[in-house]
Design goal:
Keywords: Cell membrane, Disulfide bond, G-protein coupled receptor, Membrane, Receptor, Transducer, Transmembrane, Transmembrane helix
Subcellular location: Cell membrane
Protein name: G-protein coupled receptors family 1 profile domain-containing protein
Helix content: over 70%
Structural class: mainly alpha
Family: Belongs to the G-protein coupled receptor 1 family.
Radius of gyration: 36 Å
InterPro entries: GPCR_Rhodpsn (IPR000276), GPCR_Rhodpsn_7TM (IPR017452)
Shape: elongated
Length: 333
């Protein structure tokens, strides 16, 4: 980027063909490696979502192998012009026209653009689509299970309410009960003859029924809240993936369309404005700038918008006072 800035300001290349070769090759190397690292991240996320046991196989050797593959492919793409894969007018363009451009050979441009952008773009789109599909199926399957459990809890609560709301016994049932009680000595009657007050009637039959439906009802409400939270997470994940993929496409697609058209379309038919070429190039550079910006802003964003992060920071900053306040609020509820 420093040599690119000098070239943009001076509007001519005065540093010689050797340094031009080095600059264009390092530019292709870094841009290709940056894009291929996005592919590696997408592959890692795909394995993490679709393979439950992947976390046990995710060791430094495996990650190091992925990084090695990324830099190997990037080196192959960038070193090809140094080995002679240049267009016939490259030297004349650098020495006489003071223009430093990567090799405009049609075969090389097709190979470079396909390896650096078009194939990685298709892989990223496919993997993120599969990740989103897998996450959505998993959340919907969980929601179906929650709805089934909630329905069972509601049926159980209805049965419990039926027991609680049974009509009072009829006169004949009361007479029969009294007759049986008079012929048998009950614990209440024995206690009364011993001078003790009879024990109040227990509600064992009802107490075994009424608390259970209430507990199940609360459990069903909690599951419904969890389902709503899962749905919110699904939307947030879809939005995040859309932002990541959209930023990548918006930043790099114009440059690689232009890079493929320049050697294919003759100058007399396609006149590419130099300011447009520079803008598309630096727009691609800006994609790499977005990553540290997002990483820097993530703690602030999470702290503002995530309740879990807010509570964690309050515990860290306030310590025991925050815990005592939470216990007090819970006790008051």
């Amino acid at each position: 980027m420093p040599l690119g800035a000098v070239y943009e300001v001076s509007q001519q290349w005065t540093l010689g063909p050797e340094l031009c070769d080095m600059w264009t090759s390092s530019d292709v190397l870094c841009c290709t490696a940056s894009i291929l690292h996005l592919v590696a991240i997408a592959v890692d996320r795909f394995w993490a979502v679709t393979d439950i046991d992947y976390i046990h196989h995710r060791n430094p050797s495996r990650i190091g192998c992925m990084i090695l593959i990324v830099w190997t492919v990037a080196c192959l793409v960038s070193v090809a012009p140094l080995l002679g894969w240049k267009d016939s007018g490259w030297h004349d363009r650098v020495n006489n026209e003071s223009m430093c451009m990567v090799s405009q050979d049609v075969g090389y441009q097709i190979f470079a653009t396909m390896s650096s952008f078009y194939v990685p773009l298709l892989v990223i789109l496919f993997l993120y689509w599969r990740i989103f599909q897998t996450a959505r199926k998993r959340i919907r399957r969980r929601n179906v299970g929650m709805k089934t459990a909630a329905a069972a809890a509601a049926m159980s609560a209805g049965m419990g309410a039926g027991v609680m709301c049974r009509p009072p016994p009829t006169v004949s049932e009361t007479t029969a009960f009294t007759t049986v009680s008079s012929t048998n000595t009950s614990p209440e009657k024995t206690s009364a003859t011993n001078g003790l007050a009879p024990d109040p009637p227990t509600m064992d039959g009802l107490s075994g029924v009424s608390p259970q439906p209430a507990h199940q009802h609360n459990h069903a409400k909690r599951k419904a809240k969890a389902a709503a939270a899962d749905s919110k997470r699904e939307r947030k994940a879809a939005k995040t993936l859309a932002i990541i993929t959209g930023a990548f496409v918006i930043c790099w697609l114009p440059f690689f369309i232009m890079a493929l058209m320049m050697p294919l379309c003759p100058t007399e038919y396609c006149d590419f404005n130099k300011y447009m070429v520079s803008f598309f190039l630096w727009l691609g550079y800006f994609n790499s700038t977005l990553n540290p910006i997002i990483s820097t802003l993530n703690p602030i964003i999470y702290t503002i918008f995530s309740p879990e992060f807010r509570q964690a920071f309050k515990r860290l900053l306030c310590g025991k006072k925050y815990n005592r306040g939470r216990h007090h609020v819970r006790y008051m509820q």
